[in-house]
Design brief:
It contains 2 helices and no strands. The chain is an all-alpha fold.
Amino acid sequence: MLSCGHTQHLRHQPPWQSRPWVLDPERRAALLETPFPCGWCAQGLPPETTEEP
């Protein structure tokens, strides 16, 4: 869960983004606690309306 209250999964094989760093333990560790832009917040949606399946 993001600090804004929304949920976001970062997968290594999403259909529209390449995130090779999720497969490398050192690169993953380096990105922990890094701010992540929330797409739900960008749309102005409150956390309670954006549950993932």
